[in-house]
Amino acid sequence: MTRFTVNNQPVEYRLDPDTPLLWALRDASNLTGTKYGCGTGQCGACIVDVDGRAVPSCRMTIAEAEGTYVTTIEGLSRERNHPLQLAFIAENVSQCGYCIPGFIMAASVLLRKDADPSEEAIRSTLTNLCRCGIYPRVVEAVQRAGRALRGEEVIPAGARPGIDPADAARVVPALVPPAR
Description:
The protein is of the alpha+beta class.
């Protein structure tokens, strides 16, 4: 049995110790924000924070994670109001969105070490791949989140994801046929 902490919750996995962390998070813990991309650690879609390091979870086994603290995109902020999340929304970074959790997790590690990173530092640290080409907006979002973390800017909260159930379906009286 492998034990470590995921999003501030102690977890014990009854999986083969050679199971990649990615699959333990996605399949056993239902933390599907961490994405499978290449399986070789090159694309960055599966990056999580392991003890303050940006780690491709497809390349780390749960045995290697024993005793660590792992933070996934779901654990970054329960309310989805981390400055990086708000900045990515405000800067319209997301297109297809597949790579976004990995970018945000890698950027959160960077900003914890350097709250005022240069464009060069961001580009050299965030080597994640994005087929949509969002790189310039990622740089802007990370710098904006840094300003928010330093108290120089307040990023307004975007709309909450999802649909309010009250707005999902309404009966429109003019469209309801009369009762017989």
